[in-house]
Amino acid sequence: MTKEITIEQNQYGTYSVYEFGEYPQSSVLAGQTLKQFLYMYDTAEEAAQEHPSAELCYRDAHNHFDHLPDNGDSW
Fold first, then answer.
1. How many CA within 13 A on the CB side of residue 65?
2. Residues 6+ apart with CB under 8 A from 39
3. What are the φ and ψ backbone dihedral angles of 46, each rounded to 5 degrees?
4. How confident is the model at residue 65, as a pLDDT?
5. CA 57 to chain centre
6. Is the residue at 48 inside a domain?
7. Is 69 part of a structural domain of the chain?
8. Higher pLDDT, 60 or 67
9. In this structure, is the dihedral angle defined by the CA atoms of residues 62, 65, 66 and 67, taken in order, positive or negative?
């Protein structure tokens, strides 16, 4: 299974690489998009050299939390 990988410019002026997958059934976000940080590089070129299948773009996971109870931090 090929996973999508992105290279995104970050707030530090460097580039972060992310891999996208799906949260497992055991997670409160089960079935939603998992965006996992892999590594940070000084330049987009360095990141692309290490991750040639990656796309240089920003991608939001678009997760939603409306299925979770809204009862504050009560345990």
1. 3
2. 16, 17, 47, 50
3. -60, -45
4. 76
5. 12
6. yes
7. no
8. 60
9. positive
**Secondary-structure breakdown of the chain: helix, strand, coil percentages, each rounded to the nearest 5:** 10, 30, 60
Residue 72 maps to a domain: no
Question: How many domains is the chain built from?
Answer: 1
Span 66-70, average pLDDT: 71
Q: Is residue 32 part of a domain?
A: yes
The yes-or-no verdict on residue 75 having pLDDT over 70 is: no
Could you report the per-residue pLDDT of 28-51, keeping only the tens digit for each?
Answer: 899 999 999 999 999 999 999 999
Place of tokens 């990656």: 54
End-to-end CA distance of the chain: 39
Sign of the dihedral through C-alpha 51, 56, 57, 58: positive
**Under 8 Å between Cβ of 35 and 52:** no
Domain that holds residue 27: 5-56
